[in-house]
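User: I'll paste a sequence; please echo it back and then give the predicted structure.

Assistant: Echoing your sequence first, then the prediction.
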Amino acid sequence: MASRTAGSVIKRELMASDTYLRRLKTTENGITVNNEHARATAVLKRGDELSIIVSDAEAGRPCGKKLSLSILYEDEWLIIINKPAGMAVHSSTREPDMDTVEDALYYYLKSDERPHPVSRLDRGTTGVMTLAKSGYMHALIKKQMESGAFEKSYIAIVSAIPEPEYGKIELPIGFEEGSRYKRAIAENGSRGISSYKTIYKHNGMAAVQLIPETGRTHQLRLHMAAIGCPMVGDWLYGEASGLIARPALHAYRVSFKHPVTGQSITASAPLPDDMQKLLI
């Protein structure tokens, strides 16, 4: 067998990204061979034992806040929660005291674990949210997302019944002119693809299942608005509503193969009360 370097094995067999490999190089004993510090360029011999650090222990880790968490799945590598409406994922300089998912998880997780959101949800969006406990695991799941093997499904309540009642929306997404927050359909924007299927109709509104094939910011909200069916309560791409205080969007289910154990993971969260009331 041809000689291999530690870096080559780390990238191919352990599937670490270039970014994570660079981090290992600057971490004390980030790479060891036979329990001794090694460089990424070290040539391995048959029988050598290669180890890398996959935890995120480092100085200055935030303490977090003791907040309620609804945990759908957890193991030593990742955690999946049911995010409530009104809770942002990250803190904001505009609202530094607001409670966040990161606050809750920094308090909950062990000292050598850090929350790495695999896919972020808007502050008003509820439902299934997956977070890796280390940068290494985060990189592995991101590779799955890029290959389409990480499946996400959403449910939205829209203000009009789509016509046709199912289909695929392929519209590029960029920033609205003059804004660094609001998105718009833009000819020179990033590729955006969403599939939708009407699953229930009530009082001129519809519950639709949405599957994003790309992951642009505000993609589902913007795409549904673009076909004349903005989400109920979506003040940014439709109209505010007295029926619900947020865009009626819920991350319903996630399904993927665990990158380390090979186990099939599926987690789902029930439709929240404020969205259920729209359909009664």
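The radius of gyration is 22 Å. The chain has a mean pLDDT of 90.
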